[in-house]
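dude i think i finally got it to work??
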Amino acid sequence: AAARRVSRAHAERERVTSVHYNALLHAYAAGARWKPAQHAFLEMRRRGVNPSPHTFAHLLNCAAEVLAAARSSRDAALREPAPLTRSQWQHELDKRAAKAKHAPATAGHAAASTD
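look at this
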């Protein structure tokens, strides 16, 4: 919604202020979307709109959200191994079968086979 307001304001030649961009940056921060936030900030500066202290707060908040999301997904990946695909399962089974085929017989198996 904020992106539409900024686009509409530019299209209708309304005066776009940092308040418009701050709403947009706030929305991007809430979604941890750094690239669009960065693009919006650069567009804001290109169009000559001066940032306010709130602008920088929204950018920092967005960066923090992105880092928190990355840390959370990294921690989850470390806690839980990814499930194996069908081909990975097959490879593991083939590897174990080959190992069992070439493994020397144990003493118990050797004695049982000589009887």
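DSSP finds six helices and no strands in the chain.
im so relieved honestly
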